Structures are given as C-alpha cells and as structure tokens.
Amino acid sequence: MEYMTCPSDTFFLISHMLNSLAISNYALIKSVEMSPARSLNVITGETGAGKSILLGAIGLLLGNRADTKVLLDTSSKCIIEGEFDISEYQLKDFMNAMDLDYFANTIIRREITPSGKSRAFVNDSPVKLDTLRNLGSHLMDIHSQSDTLLLGQPMYQLNLIDTFGGTSDLLAKYTACFQQYERTRLSLEELVEKSAHLSKEEDYNHFLMKELMDAALETNEQSQLEEELKVLENAEEIKNRLTEALQILDEENYGMLQGIRELKSRLTSLRDFGEKFDDLSKRIESISIEAQELSRDLSFEADTVSLNPSRLEEVRDRLSLIFTLQQKHRVSSIQDLLAIQAKLEQDLQVVHGLDDQINDLSEKKDHLFKTLNLLGDELSQARQTHFSLFMELLTHLLKEVGIPEAEVRIKHRSIEPSAFGKDHLSIFFSANKGYAPAPLQEVASGGEFARLMFCIKYLIADKTALPTIIFDEIDTGVSGEISIKLGDLMKRMAGNHQVIAITHLPQIAAKGTHHYLVSKDSNETRSMSTMKLLDEEKRVEEIAKMLGGDRPTATALANARELMAI
C-alpha cells in the first residue's frame, strides 16, 4: 500500500537524539559506553546477558527511583550520563521555565551513592526527579511489552487521533476555554457557598452590629467613665477632705493664706535694703499667687463634688454595658469593639453585594459553556473525519506485521464537555477472522498488543516530534517473513527518528546501522555484563549465530550477508 502517509525513506535531520550514553557500576555493568547512530540501532544478546539492565539504567537517567541494590560495587557510586542533541527541538522555553540552563548538547547525569542517596543533574545543575521525568518525557520514549497497557486507556486513544489527525491546535483552543470555564465555575461555586454561609449568619450579624451601633461607643469613653465612677462612689469623702483642706488654707484668722499675706508684708518692706531681699519678696509673691489659685480650685472642686445617686447609677449602667459587650465579643477595649462593628458592617455589605457578583459570574459561566460546546463540536467533527483513514492505515500495517485478519474499529460517543473534549473513544480490535472486534485490553495477546503499539507509533511518527524511541523486544511472537517486514518498517521509521531496538530476531538485527552486542562474562566470584559495537564482519558472525547457533555454518554466514544486503 504505497500511498500510505507514513515515514518515508527520505532522510531528513532528526530533531533530537541521544549522542552518547555512559553507565558505570550499575547492576551487572561495570562500565559501558555507546554512541548510537542517527538511525536504527540494534542491541542483541543471549537471554539474561543484561539487555534489560541497560533499559533499567536508562530509566534511572529519565527519573525512575533507585536504591543501593543497583550498585555493582557497593563501595562506589553508580553514574549514568547521557548527552542529547536538542538543537532542532523546541525545548528552550521549557528549560527556561524549569530554571535550567539551555545548551544544544544537553547532558543529564544520575548518581546513586553507596549510602543510598540519589542525585540528578541537567547541565551540571542539580534537579529534582519530577523535573528529570518531565524533561525525559521530551527526549526518550521507552516502549516495552508492559507499556502496551497504556494503549487500552481511552485518553491515550483520544490523543492518538488528535496526533494523527492534526487536531491538536483545535484541542488547545478547546482546552484554554475549558480551563477558563472551570475557573469561572469554581469561583461561582465558592461565591455561592460564601453567600449561603454569610446569609445564614446575616440576621445574627445584623443584630450584633445594631447592638454595637446603639451603644454609640466612643474611643476614650471607658477610661473617662471609670475615673468618674471612682469620684462618684467616694463623693462624700472627697468633699470632706477638700473642705478640710480649704479651711487649712483659708481660715479667717489662722489659715495659711493669712500667714502668707503677713509674710508677704514683712518681706516687701525689706525690698529697699538690697537685691537679695527683693528676690525673697518676689518669691513670696509667687507663693501668694499660687496659694490663692489653689484656694479657688479647692473651692471649685468642693462645690462640684456632690452626692449624685442618679449619675452614679447612669455611669455604672454604661460601664456594665461596655463590659458586657467586651465579654460577649471576647475583647478588652472599646477600640476592639469598634473594629468588630466595622467588620460586621463590611460583612453585611459583602452579603448585599454578592448577589450582583453571583449574577455576573453565572452569566459569564453560561457564555463560556456555550462557547465550550461550540469548540467541542468543532473538535469532535474534526476528529471524526480521520477515523476511517486511521483504521484503514492501521489495519494495513497490522497485516504487514503478521496479523492478516486484523480488524480495527473506533467506537465513539458524545459526552458532556470534559478536559479533553466532548468525545469518548474506544479502539476495538480483532486479530482473528470470525471474532467481532472488542476493547483492546480484552482481546489482544502480548505479542499482538506489542505489534499493534508499534504500528500505531509508526503511523503517527511523521505527525509529531517523537523523541528517541527504544523498542524492547517488540518483535515477540514474530518470525520469518513478518520479522523482515517489521525490520523494514523500523528502518523506515529510523529514517526520521533515532530508533534503538532490543531484539532477538536476526532479520531485525540485520537492518541496523549500528549493532551492539550485550554479553555476560563470568569468573569465580561474579558475573558482569559488557556491550560492544560490532564491525561489519562481527555483525555477520553474530547474525549468523542468531540464525544457526554458536557455530555458524557457511550457509548461515551467507544468509546473514543476504539479510544485511552486503
């Protein structure tokens, strides 16, 4: 089916790629380095040689958690380092947002110490694992058999259609509107809840505010009333003492004022005898004036202070009201009561103003919901136009990779607007003739599921900037002519994307640009995994071994060269 819009054989610059990978002191690996090609890289080796260990190390580089069990030598730290060429990939804004230095060749390093401490670095800047995972998702896509479970999730299937159909821009517009709608809806709910809460307390708050307003409190009133109360409660004693003091000061014949007047007369007569006598005369004059003023004040206070039972009761009642209000509101001053009064007034004003705010937000929410529905309908229609081609191309690819009776169906139903649109999708699949398509997780075997996922990634490879792709034995359950077709598809995909394939099939290994061999070496104390890049002759030998055993025949070697087309 040559008209398929899948990755072509024409090579163009790969957007980003893994330049190099170095692993030391990890599991069975003492030290491994690799520099993958800008196309298809294959990794082969006996079962148990350490191919999965390699993936585990890469997983740590991308943010997976680790412990000290990964250390080969428990006295040294484990270091995993990868250099990525991201010059043609739009990651500068992303890295700036993560507060990371941007370099066209970005280096990620992961360290695990013997004590169990894990550290991660991006361009020598320490980062948290969440940041590493976020960045790693833009750089590498590790696809293993267990990862195919993701394909059964509706949201993942919906994302496939958006990627395939190029409806991501419409989705972005819809998502922006949905987020605005959700913010408005939540704000409205909070406002309605606040209004209900305040309304429930409105009558009581109004009573409290009226009680404080009727009290007509003044800032310094309490201290003044308390001082007045002391005077009123002791009026008789105060008046008697003032009268006695006045008598001592102003008794007609023996009072202090009379004595001061006589003293003043004596000293005044001495003024002409010298300056010092003049000073004494002035001093007695000052004393005389002060004594007369004191007499007047005592007289005024004595006349003012009087027994006033009605005023005493009035002051006591006023202070009792103030104390009662303070106890009620659990404060100790009139200033606090006035602050509470102002707060109650503000709350009551808020209650009265909430209705207008609620009405405005409700209208805004309704308008956004209408807009959201229109955008959702537009997005849904755009998605549905791509269903047929997606099913047709995917079915064809599945037949190419050894599922000749493959049948793919997309079940669609409309739903209320959600974060991802108004569509609910389910991809149904049947691998065998006579069996109706059913949901993926119910019908596909492990090998079928792996090939299905490969075909989907192949199908969307030219629709999106996929990261470096790693396939972990995706060829399970495949052999013969089908494995050759699978290898051809991988090679075509690798024309546009860096692909690393861990495989046990010689037909796929033969398609690689770089071929790495993982092997396990054992001595009396331990086993260790090693990896080396094979030259052409070693590749022929290794592929021949994969075809015919550890001692390949001339026929096997010839078949290997034929597979490699050399």
Structural write-up:
This protein is an alpha/beta fold. The chain folds into three domains: 1-139 and 467-533, Rossmann fold, CATH 3.40.50.300; 151-166 and 386-464; 201-347, no CATH class. 54% of the residues lie in helices and 17% in strands. It has helices at residues 51-61, 92-97, 129-136, 154-165, 168-215, 221-233, 235-250, 256-268, 275-304, 309-329, 334-384, 387-400, 440-443, 446-460, 480-493, 506-509, 536-548, 554-564; strands at 17-26, 29-34, 40-44, 78-85, 105-112, 118-122, 125-127, 140-143, 407-418, 421-430, 438-439, 468-472, 499-502, 514-522, 527-533. The protein has a six-stranded antiparallel beta sheet with strand order 2-1-4-5-6-7. The chain has a six-stranded mixed beta sheet with strand order 8-12-13-3-14-15. A hairpin with a 5-residue loop joins strand 5 and strand 6. The longest helix is centred in the middle third of the chain and has 51 residues, at 334-384.
End-to-end distance:
27 Å
> Approximately how much beta-strand content do the residues carry?
15-25%
User: Which percent range fits the helix content?
Assistant: 40-55%
Mean pLDDT: 85
Shape: elongated
CATH evolutionary superfamily of the largest domain: P-loop containing nucleotide triphosphate hydrolases
Using only C-alpha atoms, the radius of gyration works out to 46 Å
**Which structural class do the helices and strands define?**
alpha/beta
Total DSSP E strands = 15
Low-confidence stretches: 1-15
